[in-house]
Design a protein that fits this description.
Order of helices and strands: HHHEEHEEEEE
Helix content: 10-25%
Largest sheet: 7 strands, antiparallel
Number of strands: 7
Distance between the termini: 37 Å
């Protein structure tokens, strides 16, 4: 786990958001839940977002990686991609998440990779593949986000 030692965001993206008074690195640190789960975003562009999560601490009673933990990793990575696609004038709000769990994992680290299936003006859909340390698919997920305009008071209706 630990602190992220480098920003996974392109410098021009960091500067764009900083000009609006938004610390994008903090915004996409995976939030309180993601931090609690040990999620680290290690690469982030609108074309590909990669993150890792330890299995330890994220298991269900049988000692296997919890399906909900995989869903949190998937939604985190897909949301980062959608937000980067949308740009600084919009935010991405998850509206549909589908996850299929293929195999159990008892230890180690899983890696999620989000790639776009659709990137439009008002929505974006990302496919997220989660694999174990041997590269075997653990979970396949799909996230659709609504892209909403940002106003000085937050999101528009």
């Amino acid at each position: 786990m630990g602190e992220q030692t480098r920003t996974p965001f392109p410098p021009e993206v960091v500067e764009e958001y900083a000009g609006l008074g938004v610390d994008i690195v903090a915004l996409f640190s995976a939030g309180h839940l993601g931090n609690h789960m040990g999620i680290e975003v290690v690469e982030a562009t609108a074309d590909r977002v990669v993150g890792t999560m330890p299995v330890k601490g994220n298991t269900q009673p049988y000692g296997l990686l919890h399906g909900g933990a995989s869903a949190v990793l998937a939604e985190t990575l897909g949301s980062v991609g959608a937000m980067l696609h949308a740009g600084s004038g919009k935010i991405a709000v998850g509206v549909d998440l589908n996850a299929t769990h293929h195999r159990g994992v008892r230890d180690g680290v899983v890696t999620g990779t989000a790639t776009p299936l659709h990137r439009g003006r008002s929505s974006a859909t990302y496919e997220i593949t989660i694999t174990d340390e041997q590269g075997r698919r653990v979970c396949s997920a799909r996230l659709t986000c609504a892209l909403r305009p940002v106003t000085p008071n937050g999101i528009t209706g």
